[in-house]
Amino acid sequence: MNIGIIGAGYVGLTTAAVLAELGHVVYCVDRDKEKVERLNNGIIPIYEPGLEELVDRHRAGNRLFFRDDVEETVRRNEVIMIAVGTPSATDGSADLVFVRSVLNDIAGALSDPKIIIMKSTVPPGTGEWAESFLIEKGVSREQFEVVSNPEFLREGTAIYDTFHPDRIVIGTQNEAAAGIVQSLYSGIEAKTIITGRTEAELIKYGSNAFLATKLSFINELARVCDAFGADIMDVAKGIGKDSRIGEKFLQAGIGYGGSCLPKDVQALMAAAASQNEPLKLLQAVAEVNDTQLDVYIRKLEKILGGLDGTKHIAVWGATFKENTDDLRYSRAVALMEGLAKKDCVLTAYDPLAAPPITGVEWKESALAAVEGADAVIIATGWEEFIRADWEQVAKRMRGSVVLDGRNVLNRKAVEEAGLRYVGVGRL
Q1: Distance separating alpha carbons of residues 47 and 377, to the nearest angstrom
Q2: How do 401-404 and 375-378 pair as beta strands?
Q3: Most exposed residue of 128, 148, 338, 364, measured as fewest CB within 10 angstroms of its CB?
Q4: How far apart are CA 215 and CA 212, in angstroms?
Q5: Sign of dihedral through CA atoms 86, 91, 97, 103?
Q6: How far apart are CA 68 and CA 270, in angstroms?
Q7: 180-189 contacts: CB < 8 A, separation 24 or more?
Q8: Backbone angles phi, psi at 199, to 5 degrees
Q9: d(CA 205, CA 225)
Q10: What order do you get walking across the sheet with 312-316 strand by strand?
């Protein structure tokens, strides 16, 4: 098929590359002319393993094109996919300003029937609203079908996730439209769930909210482990073996971040509140995540006998997780901002990012960051940090504390180097 994808961000780019790999001709369009020019020159604006190779291959094979003309893209393609951002508004709700702008462009360009796929993460009821919006703009109801088709990508493994999804969700009551959307993913083996638009939108929000709940639960249980002298790793392992619960997302740490979980939890709470249905459980989930950093800053303060200008703290990691350059809602960044308020001397290193943070001096390597440090905090689980030479780390540090904020290190290796291992909810 010929597919037009509006939005060349994380979701749009990844989806465009994968659909081209599946044999479609894809036109990925964005209003940002400079971004489009860079993409046409082979410069990918985000880091995602495997993405650059796919984009390069299908640009060269004339199956993937980048444009800045939305209206022309709408006119020339039979399927239009909306993959623009839905950032948080000041009240936590999803801001649909970019979605509205795209729908306005579509309304002005429609001349023949189209399938309009909502790939952006949007609140429940958006598909119904989008349909009404287009009709109000004078578009005949027979000219389009709005279908919800949410994405479930994990940054760092997005290409793999797209080729090997747990499920493909298609939200529409129109059987023909559902069949067309399903055919886009021909070649991918996955269970397809066909449901209503609003149900599909809630599947997306509900999935992310549940994952956030698991993470906050295990982080709160880690606090209990600290209080009783238990090890959260053993506790999580035992809980995760229960088939009703599962092992994934039971990794205690300094909190969840990124472009999805924090934003989607807030957006779902705001959507529910608009219907007078407060989500008290999710309020607690967000509160636990917001306070998780404070717990371990206080713990570090106790171990070091205070945090002030005489203490030097090194932080390894800035991105919200490994294998991405995404800094959105990064707990590593929030950690550094919190430590900066204590007036510590702060040095930091990350393989991909060095965001400007007041009071933080960025170093060219992990070892350079720990030179003279009283403590080092692993804030992002990069493989480089997991495989660190702890003998060399010990030689460069002034102190001996290693705070494993992601519970990813080999504790034995750290302690054999003469360092003091401190984990999240660990003995």
Answers
A1: 24
A2: parallel
A3: 364
A4: 5
A5: positive
A6: 33
A7: 180/1, 180/79, 180/115, 181/79, 181/115, 181/117, 181/147, 181/149, 183/1, 184/1, 184/3, 184/19, 184/22, 184/24, 184/79, 185/22, 186/22, 187/22, 187/23, 188/22, 188/162, 188/163, 188/164
A8: -60, -40
A9: 30
A10: 360-362, 345-349, 312-316, 375-378, 401-404, 420-423
| Each residue's pLDDT tens digit, 239-268 | 999 999 999 999 999 999 998 999 999 999
Give the tens place of pLDDT for each residue, 156-174.
999 999 999 999 999 999 9
Structure tokens at 402: 């290693």
What does the DSSP 8-state code read for residue 103? H
CA distances to 145, 221, 223, 279, 290 from 283, rounded to whole Å, are 35, 17, 18, 6, 11
Positive or negative, the Cα torsion across 144, 148, 154, 155?
Answer: positive
Nearest to 56 by CA among 37, 46, 47, 43: 43
Burial of residue 43 (number of CB atoms within 10 Å: 0-12, 13-18, 19+):
exposed
Residues in CB range of 342: below 8 A, 6 or more apart: 297, 301, 307, 308, 311
Q: How far is CA 277 from CA 119, 233, 272, 282, in A?
A: 26, 36, 5, 12
Closest CA to 341 of 357, 355, 327: 357
- Which among 55, 54, 64, 53 has a CA at the least distance from the CA of 2? 64
Instruction: Look at residue 253 in the predicted model and tell me its pLDDT.
Output: 96
Which pTM was predicted?
A: 0.94
Give the CA count within 13 Å in the CB-facing half-sphere of 15: 29
Catalytic residue status for 260: yes
- Length of the chain counted residue by residue: 427
Q: Which amino acid is at 65?
A: F
Print the SS3 string covering 314-340: EEECCCCCCCCCCCCCCHHHHHHHHHH
Quote the CA–CA distance of 304 and 301 in Å, as a whole number: 5
Contact by Cβ (8 Å): 399, 200:
no
Going 51 to 57 to 59 to 62, the CA torsion angle's sign is negative
